[in-house]
Write a structure and sequence with these properties.
This protein is α/β, with parallel strands linked by helices. The protein is built from 11 helices and 8 strands. Strand 7, helix 9 and strand 8 form a beta-alpha-beta unit. Bound molecules: iron/sulfur cluster.
């Protein structure tokens, strides 16, 4: 994308690794509250296009701002604060999607909402998914699952695929890693299974943090028991977001952690395959 186009459409980003801050400074508290209640407006870090890793086919991805977790390996800490996102009306976000409708359909792709944590803005998410479905666009939600109960069973039907992050199994380790308990995430996974909704899961391998063999085996067993998980993406930790922690002046504890070696990734994927799951 050239600079001129970026000025015309500041919502588009070349990648989610662009640091974006204070895009909604000055938006009144009452406006934020109304937006969260009605979903008429959302707070977005950016839109990116051409993703092949956020669901089937080629995807347009909207990155929401706002997350109540504090994952030690988060590569987008600028999305933690909702006010770092740009205030975007539902109509404008839908219009952005409409531009890509034909291409997405041709390429068997779709629209993915990720973040941040999209369900911090659950009404906006539901309404944007509904607009996408009306355009015949495949929809995917990438979530940490904590706020899954904000969506009704009917609303979950509007979402063709849930990409659920399962960070680690041990409760104490999970709290250390994210600041939160993993119970709600696992309950959301069970609920999606009961509803027979399609799910992919994601697991990030961080050497020394999430690579405990017993925990991985327990996640694999749990995931396989659900019966609705179509694939597991095993992702290597990376340092592409490190500079954001520095820019935001947030203490970063993984400064010296290196990306996992190929063999660890393969061994982890194999754990999932061993219980009958497709793992990549
Ligand atoms: S849930 Fe996602 S956005 Fe939130 S802190 Fe964790 S990695 Fe970052």
């Amino acid at each position: 994308m050239n600079a001129e186009a970026r000025v015309i459409n500041p919502l588009e980003a070349a990648s989610p690794f662009e640091l974006r801050m204070n895009q909604s400074t000055g938006v009144a508290k009452s406006t934020v509250k109304a937006a969260l209640r009605t979903g008429e407006m959302g707070f977005l870090h950016s839109f990116t296009t051409g993703s092949t890793v956020d669901g089937p086919g080629v995807r347009v991805v909207a990155w929401t701002a706002g997350c109540h977790w504090r994952c030690l390996y988060c590569h987008n800490p600028d999305t933690w604060n909702m006010m770092n996102g740009m205030a975007v009306t539902l109509a404008r976000a839908a219009e952005e999607l409409r531009k890509y409708r034909n291409g997405l359909q041709t390429m068997g792709g779709g629209f993915t909402l990720t973040g941040g944590e999209p369900l911090m803005q659950d009404r906006f998410a539901v309404r944007l998914f509904s607009a996408a479905k009306d355009m015949g666009i495949h929809t995917a939600l990438n979530t940490n699952g904590q706020l899954g109960e904000r969506l009704s069973d009917e609303e979950l039907q509007q979402i063709d695929l849930v990409i659920l992050d399962i960070k680690t199994w041990d409760r104490v380790a999970h709290r250390h890693l994210t600041g939160k308990e993993n119970g709600p995430t696992l309950n959301f996974a069970r609920r999606l299974a009961a509803l027979k909704r399609p799910v992919w899961t994601r697991f990030v391998v961080v050497p020394g943090l999430t690579d405990n063999e017993r925990d991985i085996a327990q996640i694999a067993t749990f995931t396989a028991s659900l019966g609705n998980v179509e694939r597991v993406d095993v992702l290597p930790f990376h340092q592409m977001g490190r500079y954001k922690w520095k820019e935001l002046n947030i203490p970063y504890t993984l400064e010296n952690v290196e990306a996992p070696v190929r063999e660890l990734i393969d061994r982890t994927s194999q754990r999932f395959r061993a219980v009958g799951l497709k793992a990549y």
